[in-house]
Design goal:
Shape: globular
Order of helices and strands: HEEHEEEHEEEEEEHEHEHEEH
Helix content: 25-40%
Oligomer: single chain
Largest sheet: 8 strands, mixed
Number of domains: 2
Number of helices: 7
Distance between the termini: 49 Å
Radius of gyration: 18 Å
CATH superfamily of the largest domain: Fructose-1,6-Bisphosphatase, subunit A, domain 1
Structural class: alpha+beta
CATH architecture of the largest domain: 2-Layer Sandwich
Number of strands: 15
Strand content: 15-25%
Bound molecules: D-MYO-inositol-1-phosphate, calcium ion
CATH class of the largest domain: Alpha Beta
Strand order of the largest sheet: 4-3-5-6-7-8-9-10
Length: 265
């Protein structure tokens, strides 16, 4: 327990340090460059936030493994692995849209044990510890109770490099939209997940995420009482691309719609 409190302190300090960089640059001047794909951006703030986060983790736990979006793997022989997205929602950030955050998950022996997602612009800190529930600004949160997809409010995201596959992002999106189900697109997968955890959305799905997008958020959904799987209903792993996170009650129906086994009526 004592060790877990120390890890939690480091996690929250690291998230705060990254968030300070987001706040410092938000709506100001910063350099922007492109990764693969025209609109897959990285900014000076992503690099500054990542540096601040990694400095804190390395200071407190120099022997831990780190996986971070912009600098990749800092390989160490450790059972602990910090999974970092210094800014999730970079396109929003670069356009002055206040839906962006720092996201950090901590894995121990392959199991996510801590997660924090902080949007400093909206001043919302989401946190979860395995087995101890999830919170927003220190208040316990739980998922919604809607039980039908047709009455649900959903959220999704689209990859920068679109792949036209069967049951791809636009096909699935169309199935919901044609039936009038509201599907939002916030532009930050970590925040999408946290908003499911807080009961603002009933479900979130996305076709092509990386581990740093979902590591913290999926634990936060599970600890808020929700369900997270891949598109086959298997136990979720952040190391594969597809994610379905719901309040649990609409999960099976969402899987059926994604695979076109069921029509929405
Ligand atoms: C992106 C966001 C977005 C999702 C993309 C991610 P980034 O992360 O989470 O919502 O649709 O697939 O790459 O690039 O802002 O860190
Ligand atoms: Ca991301
Ligand atoms: Ca990012």
């Amino acid at each position: 327990m004592y060790l877990c409190n120390m890890l939690k302190t480091t996690l929250l300090n690291a998230v705060e340090a990254g968030a300070m960089e987001i706040t410092r640059f938000f709506n100001g001047e910063f350099k922007v460059s492109n990764k693969e794909g025209i609109n897959n951006l990285v900014t000076e703030a992503d690099h500054a936030a990542e540096k601040a986060i990694i400095n804190i983790i390395k200071r407190d736990y120099p022997g831990h493994f780190i996986l971070s979006e912009e600098s990749g793997e800092h390989i160490m022989d450790s059972e602990y692995k910090w999974i970092i997205d210094p800014i999730d929602g970079t396109v929003n950030f670069a356009n002055g849209i206040p839906i962006c955050c720092v996201s950090i998950g901590l894995e121990k022996s392959g199991e996510m044990i801590l997660g924090a997602v902080y949007n400093p612009i909206m001043q919302e800190m989401f946190f979860a510890q395995k087995g101890f529930g999830a919170s927003l600004n220190d208040h316990k949160i739980s998922v919604s109770s809607k039980s039908e997809v047709i009455k649900s409010c959903l959220v999704t995201g689209f990859p920068y490099n679109y792949l036209d596959t069967k049951n791809g992002p636009l096909e699935v999106f169309e199935r919901f939209i044609r039936k009038g189900v509201p599907v939002r697109r916030l532009g930050s997968a970590a925040i999408d997940l946290c908003w499911v955890a807080a009961g603002r959305f009933d479900g979130f799905y996305e076709h092509d995420l990386n581990a740093w997008d979902s590591a913290a958020g999926y634990l936060i959904v599970e600890e808020a009482g929700g369900m997270v799987t891949d598109f086959d209903g298997n136990k979720y792993s952040p190391y594969q691309s597809k994610i379905l996170a719901t309040n649990g009650k609409i999960h099976a129906e969402m899987l059926d719609i994604i695979h076109e086994r069921k029509q929405l009526v």
